[in-house]
């Protein structure tokens, strides 16, 4: 099997792939969990993905006004969809994740009969100030102690190596991978031991891949732990050549300046800029530069219902990128409404269709 | 039936005068700050920099029925008009096109806006402020903790370090140090620690009065004041905390309540059911709170405004900046994070001897499920109303639901 096929197979069933590695599995919520520490503890960090569709328990405990991804993740945790988890570490990548943490913490307390593993918050914050660095460093030290980790040096180097390779894939994908495939490759690396993921990605970089085509689109807005939106857009004649969410290129945009706990704190503090955590100005500058780098012809913002940040970013992003752009607001999790798709299709030059 | 509280009318009048005076000062070149309700306003107070509270201004705009027009101004500029409307209303004031229609003559443009980066959208709203000429946004982190203190309301006045955790306090103290330097440099004003200590002492005095008032109302049978009347009596002085006027206003409110209790004044003579209201005020239908007095003898005796003033603000300690950081580093935990919030509501329900709780649950209610659960587990009946506090369209059958619930509650 080609490395690409293997990675995409992992992406389709991440839970099974993670458990097949034979290591204790720790569920991670959000891109701000320092996975290095979990690796260093001899465990496998599995980033928890939601699944579009029913989220009844999540709705009950979180309220229906919260990002459906968080509601889905909570529902799946309670349903045991992720298999046996040694622990769950929740990061503060967005408001919905924090609420998910509070719900889990409280459920463990008041409904102890529920099968929930220990739950831990790692409060990584993002203001670009030294005061914040010191705080994040303290939070990372706390997590390290909680996990009983010794020296994380090796794990930091291993994860950084994977990030650098993924950055190479991000260049390759502009001409040789569809956006959907790229999303799958990245997702696969969030479910495998870092060494396994690294070996597969390395092999992928050596494979001969056919050229891909389509109207080159840069995707901004909400994050995508599910390929639904990518698939619809690419079926409709677009090729997603870049994105700025943390299930895509933002996941590995930054490495550590040194294999130390301090540099690890700085890496997580400054990683991004993600929609829920960065300023409008930072986002606009990043989106414009990233769209340019991948040769995008159009800019599409997909804003999921109850994901509040992206609509605020859009007008500055459009102005900075200087590309034809559409904001699809209030979109369902994992898909696009007919109305939104019709509007997005106006970005296609005449004569382009599937 | 009782008349309106004098302290409520006085407070409302004072607020108007203050606003007019502030507008003149700002027109004369004094810098203005716009701050979030749960931000450390005491620093501005100590430095003599006037400030307007974001959420208060939104409530004035709503009362003048200008919210829709203001949200339209946001829409025209390509910003969402349906996310955190309460926080975004003031921003729309920056785009005011019609001073004739602007409430109270309009909000002058601030030179600094201060707010925590809570939520995903609220910091963006401040970013848009920051993009306006002459306006700087000073962001504060909003940190969160794994550990939960037990009975935080007992710890907070003196043992806040233990309740909140040192990392969060280090962070916020660092940020406040930066804020002071920023204000010194950009306004040329002096931060005197002596003055700052006075301000903090006044705030504590004020909240001690609120605490006594809360305890009076909790113990009084029948309930001496309408819950809606208490709100301006607490909140207007709250926005002026750190002044002698505010401290005295809190004391006047207390004295008025005590007189009523001593005179046996009742909001409803025939008080049969004591109710607690959890959630934001139902601003589009304030009459709601009295509607069930006649039919069921049901009286609302509690809302969060006086109670959080009583329990949420007191901070004593030798290091004034750290004590101020402690007032805000966990402010929203107190009201919204389970179990902090849920346990506090249970304690307050018992303290006030309520027969039932009406819980307004909006779509994005933080910790709503756990609040209801905790109350019911404590044997307190809860009616959940699902509606938005400012949007009249969502409230249709609230009265019907209340009636059915009270019928049952009254027959037990
Ligand atoms: S106490 Fe409640 S209503 Fe008052 S400002 Fe804070 S959140 Fe808003
Ligand atoms: S019963 Fe209560 S509501 Fe009715 S008139 Fe008497 S005091 Fe007023």
Automatic annotation (TrEMBL), chain A:
Pfam families found in the cross-reference section: HGD-D
InterPro entries listed in its UniProt record: FldB/FldC_alpha/beta
Record's protein name: 2-hydroxyacyl-CoA dehydratase
Organism from which the protein derives: Amycolatopsis bartoniae
UniProtKB/TrEMBL annotation, chain B:
GO molecular function annotation: hydro-lyase activity
One Pfam family linked to the record: HGD-D
Family, as annotated: Belongs to the FldB/FldC dehydratase alpha/beta subunit family.
Protein name as it appears in the record: 2-hydroxyacyl-CoA dehydratase
């Amino acid at each position: 099997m080609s490395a690409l096929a293997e990675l995409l197979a992992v992406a389709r069933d991440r839970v099974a792939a993670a458990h097949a590695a034979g290591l204790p599995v720790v569920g991670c919520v959000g891109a701000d969990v320092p996975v290095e520490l979990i690796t260093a503890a001899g465990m496998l960090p599995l980033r928890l993905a939601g699944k579009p569709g029913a989220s009844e328990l999540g709705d009950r405990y979180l309220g229906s006004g919260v990002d459906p991804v968080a509601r889905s993740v909570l529902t799946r945790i309670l349903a045991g969809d992720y298999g046996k988890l040694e622990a769950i570490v929740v990061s503060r990548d967005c408001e919905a994740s924090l609420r998910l943490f509070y719900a889990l913490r409280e459920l463990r307390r008041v409904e102890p009969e529920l099968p929930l593993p220990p739950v831990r918050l790692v409060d990584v914050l993002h203001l670009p100030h030294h005061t914040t660095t010191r705080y994040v460093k303290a939070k990372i030290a706390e997590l390290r102690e909680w996990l009983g980790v010794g020296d994380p040096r090796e794990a930091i180097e291993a994860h950084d190596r994977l990030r650098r390779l993924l950055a190479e894939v991000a260049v390759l994908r502009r001409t040789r991978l569809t956006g959907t495939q790229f999303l799958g490759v990245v997702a696969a690396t969030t479910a495998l031991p870092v060494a396994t993921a690294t070996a597969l990605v390395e092999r992928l970089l050596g494979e001969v891949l056919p050229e891909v085509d389509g109207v080159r689109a840069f995707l901004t807005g909400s994050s995508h732990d599910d390929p639904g939106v990518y698939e619809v857009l690419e079926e409709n004649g677009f090729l997603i050549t870049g994105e700025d969410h943390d299930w895509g290129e933002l996941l590995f945009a930054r490495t550590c300046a040194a294999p130390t706990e301090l540099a690890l704190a700085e890496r997580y503090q400054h990683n991004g800029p993600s929609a829920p955590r960065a300023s409008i100005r930072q986002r606009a500058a990043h989106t414009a530069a990233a769209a340019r780098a991948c040769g995008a012809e159009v800019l599409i913002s997909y804003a999921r219902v109850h994901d509040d940040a992206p609509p605020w970013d859009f007008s500055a992003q459009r102005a900075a990128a200087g590309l034809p752009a559409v904001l699809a607001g209030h979109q369902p999790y994992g898909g696009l409404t007919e109305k939104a798709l019709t509007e997005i299709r106006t970005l296609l030059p005449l004569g382009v269709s599937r | 039936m009782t008349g309106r509280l004098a302290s409520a009318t006085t407070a409302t009048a004072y607020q108007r005068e203050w606003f007019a005076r502030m507008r003149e000062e700002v027109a004369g070149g004094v810098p203005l700050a716009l701050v979030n309700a749960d931000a450390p306003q005491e620093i501005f107070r100590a430095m003599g920099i006037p400030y307007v509270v974001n959420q208060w201004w939104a409530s004035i705009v709503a009362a003048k029925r200008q919210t829709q027009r203001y949200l339209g101004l946001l829409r025209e500029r390509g910003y969402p008009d349906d996310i955190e409307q309460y926080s975004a209303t003031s921003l729309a004031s920056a785009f005011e096109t019609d001073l004739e229609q602007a409430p109270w003559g309009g909000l002058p443009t601030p030179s600094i806006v201060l707010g925590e980066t809570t939520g995903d959208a609220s910091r963006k709203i401040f970013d848009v402020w920051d993009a306006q000429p002459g306006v700087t946004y000073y962001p504060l982190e909003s940190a969160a903790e794994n550990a939960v203190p037990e009975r935080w309301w007992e710890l907070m006045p003196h043992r806040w370090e233990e309740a909140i955790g040192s990392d969060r306090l280090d962070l916020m103290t660092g940020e406040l140090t930066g804020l002071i330097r920023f204000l010194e440099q950009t306004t040329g004003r002096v931060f005197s620690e002596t003055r700052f200590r006075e301000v903090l002492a006044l705030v504590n005095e004020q909240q001690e009065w609120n605490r006594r008032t809360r305890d009076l109302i909790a113990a009084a049978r029948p309930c001496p004041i309408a819950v809606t009347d208490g709100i301006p009596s607490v909140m207007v002085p709250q926005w002026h905390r750190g002044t002698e006027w505010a401290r005295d206003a809190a004391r006047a409110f207390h004295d008025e309540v005590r007189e009523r209790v001593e005179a046996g004044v009742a909001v409803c003579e025939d008080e049969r059911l004591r109710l607690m209201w959890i959630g934001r005020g139902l601003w589009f239908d304030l009459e709601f709170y009295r509607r069930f007095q006649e039919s069921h003898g049901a009286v609302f005796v509690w809302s969060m405004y006086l109670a959080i003033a009583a329990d949420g603000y007191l901070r004593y300690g030798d290091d004034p900046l750290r004590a101020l950081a402690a007032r805000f580093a966990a402010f929203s935990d107190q009201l919204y994070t389970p179990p902090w919030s849920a346990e506090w509501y249970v304690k307050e329900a018992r303290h006030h001897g309520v027969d039932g709780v009406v819980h307004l649950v909006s779509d994005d209610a933080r910790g709503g499920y756990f609040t209801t659960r905790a109350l019911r587990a404590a044997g307190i009946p809860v009616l959940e109303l699902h509606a938005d506090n400012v949007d009249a369209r969502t409230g249709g059958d609230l009265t019907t639901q209340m009636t059915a619930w009270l019928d049952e509650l009254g027959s037990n």
